[in-house]
Every structure is written in C-alpha cells, then in structure tokens.
Design brief:
307 residues; seven-stranded mixed sheet; six-stranded antiparallel sheet
C-alpha cells in the first residue's frame, strides 16, 4: 500500500519505526514545524522528523492544511491510507477524504474515555485501573471516530507518565501492524461507534497544576506525582526552598498536623500531612540540582526540616 504518516513526539516514533521496516511504501512523513527548545532556544526538529530523515523519507512540515496547494501536494502522492499518531493538528474533512481508505489514528486511551491531548497522564491522575490504545477511523471531531481495533493494559501502582507512555507506544505500534496486515488481505475492519456515555477530555498539562496542594488527599497527590513524571514534575515549598518531587508514596496513617506540615523526615522519606493521610516524598530535586534520594537531600541540608 501507499502510506503517509503524520506524527510529532516520541510517542509517534515506534509506529513510524514499524512502517519503515514494513512492506508498504511510505511516501512522506508530516510533522510539526521545528520549535525553539533548550536554554539557547534554538530550533529543534521533532523526534519524528529526525527518525524519518534517518530513514531517507521526505519530511513535510506545513503549519496547517488551509492552503489548497498543501492539500494538492498530499493528494499528488495518491495515498491509500494516512496514519496519524499524536500529530498535533486537527485534520479538516477535505484532508481526511484524500486517502483511498481515509485516515487512521492511534490514540492512547480506551475511547471515549480521555479524548484530547494528555490521555496517558490523565488516566494515571484519575486512578484508572487500566488504559490502552485504540486504532480509530478519523472523523472531523476530536477523537470521535469509530474504533477499529483496541488493546488494553493495566495501569500498575508504580507506573509514571513516562513508563506508561513507553509501554503504550509499543502497544500502539503492534496494533498498527495488525490493522495494516488485515487491511492488506482485503478485510474490512469492523467500525465500532464510540458510546455516547463515558466521554471525558484529557486537557493539556499545565505547569500550574504541578504545584502540590496538601489540602488534598495524599492518594490524589501520589497519583499526580506519578502522572506528571517526567513532565512537568510536581513541586512544593519545603523548608524554605522549592523542591521538585520525582517520587512519592501515599501513607494511610493520619496526623493531627495542619496540611503541608512535615511530621517526619528520615532516610525513608519526608512525610507531609495532607487532608487525608500523609504524603511521603522519596525522591526530590533542588533548584539547579539533580534528582536525588531524600536521604541524600537531607544529608546535604544545612538546617534540619524538623526542630
């Protein structure tokens, strides 16, 4: 088949890898324009662009598809199918109609739960027991199309946004390979409409959400710490300084201390009173420093956290 791929971040790379190694003709790769990044704010290519160039594939980076000339360039490829994985643009109907079999989207949730930008992190934050990847036939709406294939995975108690991201990227790549293999044989994949009940939206992560609010239950904060690792990383004010919290554990024991008060500090961690339970910080990072175990952080402090 004649394929076009559209994706941008690291999550999109494993599916792209499988297409590069597969039997179909990958005609072009679409990705977001280079963006400034790092301390020097120099333009950086997306992970998808880097991998596509390594594979010798033409890379296209339009701002959008409003320009008729850009749509004509896509149509000139005569694609059978366009595969979209975290591209970052909503495709208009006149683009969805170009490929012979339309456009497929790999989405990292069990639709209709967690439509939108941050399904992986929101599933952890909400305490979902499982998640997965859906292969969807794209429509004009945001993640509203019928589901073609689905694969599920449990969310483990120690999963972070990073670990679940990596696992789902591999699952998504495998699901795509299965879908393409079935399409090549002429099989019409069943299109399962999404139910109207249970729709939730995974809003884009905001750094402002990363500040830990100890008036919330400890179990809620623990999930947020895991969900926001490796970005944007939760933080709090502690002992007169700002700390980034890379790992934490919710403790069921109760305390009469006010929320935000340190009730214990030692090699096992720093225990902070919450609205319900205690949050034990186990891995932290000072401003300008590296992430470290709490025992090392406490040893380096000039003043104790507890009187």
């Amino acid at each position: 088949m004649r394929l076009v791929f559209a994706g941008t971040p690291e999550f999109s790379v494993p599916p792209l890898e499988r297409l590069l190694a597969g039997p179909d003709a990958l005609l072009a790769v679409y990705t977001q324009p280079d963006r400034p990044a790092g301390r020097g704010r120099q333009l950086q290519p997306s992970p998808v662009k880097q991998r596509a160039l390594q594979g010798g594939i033409e890379v296209r980076q339009p701002l959008n598809f409003k320009d008729a000339e850009e749509r004509a360039r896509l149509a000139a490829l005569r694609p059978d199918l366009m595969i979209v994985v975290a591209y970052g643009l909503i495709l208009p109907q006149n683009v969805l109609d170009i490929p012979r079999f339309g456009c497929w989207n790999l989405h990292a949730s069990l639709l209709p739960r967690w439509r939108g930008a941050a399904p992986i992190q929101r599933a952890i934050e909400a305490g979902d027991a499982e998640t997965g990847v859906d292969l969807m036939q794209m429509e004009r709406g945001l993640d509203t199309g019928p589901v073609l294939l689905e694969r599920r995975t449990p969310i483990h108690a120690d999963d972070t946004g990073g670990s679940l991201h990596d696992r789902l990227a591999v699952i998504g790549a495998e699901l795509l390979v299965e879908g393409l293999a079935r399409l090549r044989t002429g099989e019409a994949l069943p299109q399962q409409p999404q139910p109207e009940q249970g729709v939730t939206y995974a809003h884009k992560l905001d750094k402002a959400e990363a500040r830990l609010d100890f008036t919330q239950p400890a179990r809620v904060l623990e999930r947020r710490v895991r969900a926001f690792n490796p970005w944007p990383i939760c933080d709090c004010e502690l002992g007169g300084e700002r700390l980034r919290v890379h790992a934490a554990q919710a403790l069921e024991q109760q305390s009469t201390a006010a929320p935000g008060r340190v009730v214990a500090a030692g090699a096992a961690g720093i225990d902070i009173a919450c609205a319900d339970g205690l949050l034990r910080l186990t891995r932290v990072q000072r401003e300008g420093g590296r992430a470290q175990a709490v025992a090392d952080y406490l040893n380096a402090r000039r003043t104790p956290l507890l009187p």
